[in-house]
Amino acid sequence: MSDQATPVAAQASTATPEATSLFAPDSVGLVSARSMEFMTPLMLACGRELASYTLVYETYGKLNADASNAVLICHALSGNHHAAGYYDAQERKPGWWDAYIGPGKPIDTRHFFVVSLNNLGGCHGSTGPSSINPETGKTYGPDFPVLTVKDWVNSQARLADALGIQKWAAVIGGSLGGMQVLQWAISQPERLRHAVVIASTPRLSAQNIAFNEVARQAIMSDPHFYNGRYAEHHTLPRHGLRLARMIGHITYLSEHSMGQKFGRDLRIDKLNYGFDVEFQVESYLRYQGESFSERFDANTYLLMTKALDYFDPAADFNDDLVTAVSQATCDFMVISFTTDWRFAPARSQEIVNALVAAGKAVSYACIDSPHGHDAFLIPNPRYQAVFSAYMHKVHAQITQPTQDH
Amino acid sequence: MSDQATPVAAQASTATPEATSLFAPDSVGLVSARSMEFMTPLMLACGRELASYTLVYETYGKLNADASNAVLICHALSGNHHAAGYYDAQERKPGWWDAYIGPGKPIDTRHFFVVSLNNLGGCHGSTGPSSINPETGKTYGPDFPVLTVKDWVNSQARLADALGIQKWAAVIGGSLGGMQVLQWAISQPERLRHAVVIASTPRLSAQNIAFNEVARQAIMSDPHFYNGRYAEHHTLPRHGLRLARMIGHITYLSEHSMGQKFGRDLRIDKLNYGFDVEFQVESYLRYQGESFSERFDANTYLLMTKALDYFDPAADFNDDLVTAVSQATCDFMVISFTTDWRFAPARSQEIVNALVAAGKAVSYACIDSPHGHDAFLIPNPRYQAVFSAYMHKVHAQITQPTQDH
Questions:
Q1: Where does the record place the catalytic residues (chains A, B) (predicted)?
Q2: What angle in degrees, to the nearest 10, is found between the helix axes of A298-310 and A238-252?
């Protein structure tokens, strides 16, 4: 490995036995983030290179002797490295995929060494637009390069190198995370045994791009955006980011689940014939947008939506998805959800059909769920059973006993 | 009739024979708008009243001796009174529903006297937020009252009075226009023989409200909005209105038609890895938003979306749509479109099912179209045939010969 990777803040990220007892037995318990610096320039799809960068990540479970039990979690648009467990005993909410990662859960930390990172370009510790550009001493802002899913896979491969993981037992992700899984399978085929692609798509539709474009325009037309240099102006494009999140949120829920959750319920008992919040769904959306705009970086949001738009692995193979996935050597699990209209089951089936045509081993499940695109994050017995069954198969192929890491 | 209605600018709005020859034989030809002032206060659902107001409208065809051949066209969110024909020989685009109104078209102006108005609260000549408030001498802006579909029906009934139309042969509308039709049937049952409800819904879903709310927030968070008093500040909330229209536009098209129209085609031949327009769909949306923001009033847009949110005729009848439509005495034609996901066929079927349960005469057609919600505006042979057949039935019930108006 040519990278000069330096682990920083190398606390044990898995829980101590005493701390664990504060949490449910199927929780990974207390966790903490680590970070890794990479000093070898990373060449990017856009033609630019990053001279150096940091990735922040968490791990759960123990790496076995031959490093054959490692699984990589790839996050979605607004995700981060904190996928499971708690940072302290007072933390109310665990990591974003805690329902699926832990002892006895589908990604069973008794068997697997789980690596979850914040993607390059993110805003939770990994190098991104809100980091300091070493060349200028100021935040990158809009000067941070536009990234693609391929760039992420390359940066993640270096993290794997640094952790001594030559081949992932599985690479797993939902939505934009699923795109990364597909890209791993295609461009790094020798480095994973299984690919688990959840609620994803082989490429965005015009409608998907359109929603992203409106979100970007909302951010970029906010007068506090300052062409991405809001940090230098000591402000934030809160209104734009709030709108972007509201638009996104509508596409994450199904019409049915929104109806079930809010219907036409009013926040107070009668119409006020004005433009203040009246319906519960308005109140919910405003809250979601508001809280997101305080915690997420606008330039990162723009970057993530562009990576979504650009993802199109077939484009490298004469627009033929079958040829693209023919590069893969791993087995596949593809999961979709009935009411997901952002990346509908038909989009997952495009992946499955291409894999079948390419003669690959693929399992596919379309899970009955009312929760739209968000279903991939939400507890669901059938989804958990299907996911667990596949991960048992992944585990069964690992012969080495686990060891402390 | 208690209204003191004064026709203003009473030019003949139908074409002269010489002018007509410039246009296709199935065009209504040259048309012009009229306006009518109403000096009797109109009580509104919000509890306020409008002391006086003007409605601008067009007519096509001739009213017959007993005024039994009049049909009313109700417009949708961004529509207006210019539904058919041309204002001058150089005008490139005819009225918004020209494909369906004219000699030999479904709404056949050889048989019907067609009335098409700009709704109260609009921004094309009828009294609305951009009109001068006689009490202050300034534009109403945000002081203009919030209107409901019921208010529109009441204001339209006064226009009918002034035109000497006691009973419409049919009231016809798509989308928000269809809601007005349904409201006419329920609250003015003795004043229409037929109701034609196209691409509509008995009430908005939580998702529909959510999209409207994001559009409103986009407008209201534009710093040029000035709480609706942008006219006094000699500016316009262009960015907000542009975003609102972009969001709306996505919901008017089907995912399929957007895919067929744009796919993932790039505007230039390669990705530029930046935030300028890259995909054709982005360019289209920006153009649509831009041109709309120059021609439409933001306060009117807010008002129209609120009228959509509020529409819920069942709410007056203990949330029972069957009881609500039991008030009607007219016959119904309900039309939906397969790929309309804004007001899906299932929403039209709710109306049909309620009408059937109430024992009303109803014809229903779900038209196969790739064009989403916009399908109601677009030429389509099957839709035209079904619509024409129903209008022939409406015409057959009119026994009086037509006369000049």
A1: 175 (nucleophile), 340, 373
A2: 40
CATH level 3 topology of B28-203+312-400: Rossmann fold (3.40.50)
* Closest of B313, B323, B45 to residue A264, by C-alpha: B313
User: Which of the residues B282, B310, B347 would you substitute to probe the A interface, choosing the one with the greatest number of A C-beta atoms within 10 Å?
Assistant: B282
Tell me the mean pLDDT in the region A342-360.
98
Residue to test with chain A: of B144, B273, B278, most A Cβ within 10 A:
B273
Q: Residue B376: pLDDT above 90?
A: yes
pLDDT at residue A75 above 80?
yes
Distance from CA of A337 to the nearest CA of B (A): 18
Q: Do A279 and B209 touch (CB under 8 A)?
A: yes
Amino acid identity, residue B317? Answer: F
Shortest Cα distance, chain B CAs vs residue A172, angstroms: 26
Q: Which of B108, B340, B348, B371 is an active site residue?
A: B340
Per-residue model confidence as pLDDT tens digits over A361-374: 999 999 999 999 99
DSSP letter string, B187-231:
HSGGGBSEEEEES--SS--HHHHHHHHHHHHHHHTSTTSGGGTTT
Q: What's the pLDDT at A91?
A: 86
Average pLDDT over residues A190-216: 97
The verdict on whether B309 is a catalytic residue reads no
Task: Sketch the domain layout of chain A as residue ranges.
Answer: 28-203+312-400, 204-310
C-alpha to C-alpha distance for A13 and A57, rounded to whole angstroms = 9
Which chain B residues are within 8 Å of A213, Cβ to Cβ?
246, 279, 281-282, 285-286
Span B272-319, pLDDT tens digits: 788 888 899 999 999 999 999 999 999 999 999 999 999 999 999 999
Q: Which residues of B touch A302 (CB under 8 A)?
A: 275
Q: Which residues of A touch B47 (CB under 8 A)?
A: 273
Q: Cβ contact (<8 Å) for A205 and B258?
A: yes
Distance CA B74, CA B81 (A): 9
Per residue in A100-143, pLDDT tens? 999 999 999 999 999 999 999 999 999 999 999 999 999 999 99
A-B interface: how many C-beta pairs under 8 angstroms? 134
Give the one of A214, A242, A255 whose C-beta lies nearest to B205's C-beta.
A255
CA distance B211 to B195: 28
Nearest to B163 by CA among B76, B80, B44, B57: B57
pLDDT in tens, B315-354: 999 999 999 999 999 999 999 999 999 999 999 999 999 9
Q: Determine, for residues B205 and A258 on separate chains, whether the beta-carbon distance falls below 8 Å.
A: yes
**How many angstroms separate the CA of residue A136 from the nearest CA in chain B?**
21
CATH for A204-310 (1.10.1740.110, 2.170.120.40, 2.40.40.20, 1.20.120.450): 1.10.1740.110
What pLDDT is stored for residue A22 in this prediction?
Answer: 83
Report how far apart, in Å, the C-alpha atoms of B87 and of each of B13, B25, B82, B100 are.
10, 16, 9, 18
- Judging contacts by C-beta atoms under 8 Å, the chain A residues touching residue B243 are 214, 217-218, 221, 243
- B25-66 confidence digits (pLDDT tens): 999 999 999 999 999 999 999 999 999 999 999 999 999 999
Q: Are A69 and A88 in contact (CB under 8 A)?
A: no
Best residue in A43, A151, A261, A281 to probe B by mutation, most B CBs within 10 Å? Answer: A281
Partner-chain contact A217 B243, CB within 8 Å: yes
Pairing of strands A42-43, B49-50: unpaired
Residue type, B121: G
pLDDT band at B401; cut points 50, 70, 90 = low
- Residue B261 CA to residue A279 CA, distance in Å, equals 35
Residue type, A245: R
Residue of B nearest to A215 (CA): B243
